Amino acid sequence: MRKILIRLNNAWARLRLTGIAPENLLVLAPHCLQRSDCERNILSDPDRCARCGQCDVAGLLRLRDALGMPFRIVAGGREAVAAVKRPDIHGVIAIACGKELTAGILASFPKPVLAIFNQCPHGPCRDTCVSLDEVETALKRLLAR
Ligand code: SF4
Predict the structure, then answer these.
(1) Three-state SS across 5-52?
(2) Residue 58's closest CA among 84, 92, 25, 35?
(3) How far apart are CA 98 and CA 96, in angstroms?
(4) How far is the CA of 7 from the centre of ligand 1 (A)?
(5) pLDDT for residue 138 is more than 90
(6) Residue 145 has what pLDDT?
(7) What pLDDT score does 22 carry?
(8) Mean pLDDT over all residues of the chain?
(9) Is the minimum distance from the CB of 81 to ligand 1 under 6 angstroms?
(10) Nearest CA-CA partner of 143 in 27, 12, 34
(11) Which of 1, 65, 73, 77 is the most buried (most CB within 10 A)?
(12) Which residues contact 62 (CB under 8 A, 6 or more apart)?
């Protein structure tokens, strides 16, 4: 059921977000994407990542550098909603699990949120990953050329 709702939401979000300027499209990623044994404090500043490539944070930073959208890593829903409410943010690509995505979509309304599921090969909330191809494809389809 949750997957169906997110799919419907994504169809609506794509319509609303197509042609958005990169600086107005926030990419939000969950803290669990960072390797659990990495000591870099990337919550306050993702650029503290050393880009060692052992988790997908490095790849997301590469996409940010190439395409120019703001990028935040957040530890919880309250922080995510505060980032989304900024007036310069007109829409969001959010990476998270189904539960967090659903809560984020509702809390961010009426701002459109394109939801991308992370994968949890080590169980929930630990050493998760995301398809960088899926994120890159979504960004390239939405951003104004
Ligand atoms: S890419 Fe490396 S340095 Fe960056 S957050 Fe992941 S493990 Fe840490």
Answers:
(1) HHHHHHHHHHHHHCCECHHHEEEEEEHHHCCCCCCCCCCCCHHHCCCC
(2) 35
(3) 7
(4) 30
(5) yes
(6) 62
(7) 97
(8) 96
(9) no
(10) 27
(11) 73
(12) 51
Tokens 């996409």 correspond to 63
Report the residue among 32, 38, 132 best suited for mutation to probe ligand 1: largest number of ligand atoms under 8 A from its CB.
38
- CA 126 → CA 35, 37, 43, distances in Å? 8, 10, 15
Measure the CA–CA gap between 106 and 102, rounded to whole angstroms. 6
Tokens (6 digits) for 28: 């939000």
What residues does each domain of the chain span? 2-142
User: How far is Cα of residue 29 from the mean position of the Cα atoms in its chain?
Assistant: 4
Q: What is the CA radius of gyration of the chain?
A: 14
Does the C-beta of 40 come closer than 6 Å to ligand 1?
Answer: yes
CB 84 within 8 A of CB 24: no
55 lines ligand 1 (CB under 6 A): yes
